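During the no-cost extension, the postdoctoral fellow (Dr. R.K.) reprocessed legacy sequence entries with the updated structure-token encoder. One reprocessed record is reproduced below for audit purposes.
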Amino acid sequence: KSGGGGGGASSSSKNFDVAVVGRGLCGAAAARHLAKAGGRVALVGPLEQAARSKGVFGAHHDEGRITRKTDPDDVWALLAVRSIDRYDEIKRESGGVQFYEEV
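Re-encoded structure tokens follow.
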């Protein structure tokens, strides 16, 4: 599935500046930053499964991701804290998608 571009034309007739292959965590982040910089981005890859009881789900999709603010390496701990502090920004920009829920 591709995104970006404008108008109601089919995805095959749209022009993109870049195609990001992989809709996982890194691919989605890359596409987001490219789009925020003004790029017309096509994000390519399978959608997450709607039914959690079938096939792969676990650690490869949002429900299975673990976030922590501590790490034996101070640099990774700092990066984790900075990332978590930006989750509300991502939620606002996505129109309210709940990205993180503290337990």
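The chain is about 30% helix and 10% strand. Strands lie at 18-21, 41-44. The remaining legacy entries will be reprocessed before the final report is submitted.
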